[in-house]
What we know:
By secondary structure, the chain is α+β, with helices and mostly antiparallel strands. The protein is built from six helices and 14 strands.
Amino acid sequence: MAEFLTTNGTSFHIENIIMEAKSKLILVSPFLQISKTFYERLKDASNKNVAIKIIYGKDDLKPNERNSLAELKNVELFFFQNLHAKCYFNENKMVITSMNMYEFSEKNNREMGVLIDRHTDNLVFDKAVAETLSIIQSAEPVPLHKSSRQTISEVKPVTNGLKQKFQKQIRGYCIRCEERIDYNADKPYCPDCYAIWVQYENPEYIENVCHRCGEYDETSMNKPQDSNCYKLWKKEQKQNSF
Ligand SMILES: [Zn+2]
Ligand SMILES: [Zn+2]
């Protein structure tokens, strides 16, 4: 028998559906944001060779989110503009709900959902699967290419007289919104994000983007670069002090 779910139950079962998927996982959600927890769950599923299809329909994925998804095997991404449904299923269980995918780790909204078991609610399960497949048919496949950002190893040292100098990095990324900004490890936010950050002024507040290379990693005002970029930055500081 189908089971009625409130917010907690909905998140719990969406997470379970991802974790317990054995061969197939389909996630239908208009809004797609890849939180760290969500990404880790997807990664586990992908490592178990689960075929993952994600259908979304609102705003563009950020380059980092796309890059992260591109690193997972067996993930197919589809865009369907008029998508409003939210439905998550593996080969056995399904949740149809008001909850968007990224919200499954948040507990702020009041959501409702229904848990459906393929064995006891076969007809409902099959109809929802058929409708999802029909959405996928009319959806646009989104290619998951890695963006060609200049990464550290690609920054070539230039020879200047006898002394070898590193090319100076001039452009960086806002550690919150990924916008391209001037590279300055003391100012890793764009003006908009800085205006929000400064209201709390928490130098340890975790962001998701490396200021230097723009890749997905935990950063903060205190530590705006991932460890590779930090090392390079240190090296440059040394070079500059000659
Ligand atoms: Zn920003
Ligand atoms: Zn970096």
